[in-house]
Amino acid sequence: MAKVPYQIVMQQLLEKTAELTITDNDRIVIFSDLHVGNGKSLDDFQGNSDLLKAALSDYYYPQDYTLILNGDVEELHRYSLHEVRAHWTDLYAIFDSFFQKNRFYKIFGNHDSKLFSLFEAQKRYPLHESLHLKYKNSSLFLFHGHQLSYYYQRFNDLMGIILRIIAKPLRIKHYSVAHDNHKKFTIERRAYDFAKEHGMAAILGHTHRPLFESLSKIDTLNYQIETLLRRYHKVSQNDRDKIEEEVRSLKQEVDRQEAKEGKELSINKVYSDATAVPCVFNSGCVIGKRGMTAIEIADGQIKLVHWFDSNVDKKYIREDLDNTTQLNKSDYFRTVLKSDDLDYIFTRIRLLT
Ligand SMILES: [Mn+2]
Q: 203 with 245, same domain?
């Protein structure tokens, strides 16, 4: 079959990528889409900046994690690199501490792609377009994700101009693919096809929608509902009442999520007649209203985690005590949303592709 442009772009990306071999002793944390600005009121990063700094310096750094930033770190469509670096010196000091220990990788996205054309000395850190993590005989391929869209390849420079000229004076906050469900889906679907074709796992950002094993939050909620409904007829009346209650509350959560995000197109729904291959992961973003998400790889496992400030969000403290831990004595918490063994995931990818 003839290759379409994004497949050619992705193939080249894979061929020229930097490689990093990891073992069960390595710990990796991946954040993407920080969109760091100038610290003023329109800076999308401002809201969770203290949360990120605390998570990095008080949790990931002391636990020997390697930090990977998977694109859209600086918001250079709106701000100059100079004003970003001048304001967030403490954040760069934290990046420096990881870098000095040789535990720092920076990948660029579409909002910070300007860095690529700078002289090495101006970049501050080596800059990658992608990173190939080799684990045993398996591969995790990290890239920001804008490479999967024609639109961003062709019009990225124009978008920068539009944001500077129009959005900034009108005080429009973050404008991105994050708000367009169809664009998100196209990118996820292409990531899925690419990863599946190569028998690898893809880890991206860009859409701001967290994915784990190719499933979104709504997919996961729907799976939970399915599982409960299958059990319903096999259990006692007493348990049925409990199941009914649980199903109603999950359904409410699906409705809330859809009201917020719009009805989503999902990899899972398109492939509803087949089993979704667990080959796409997305770290979400750092600039969420209720906190930030990240992907962790440690001790042979991969996890999707959510960090939040208990003054902003109490949901997980109420509901998910087992998976939620407090950061020292701060107001910050980390909750594990999903986790699985890498060996199990790669066995499924191998057998299902
Ligand atoms: Mn992006």
A: no
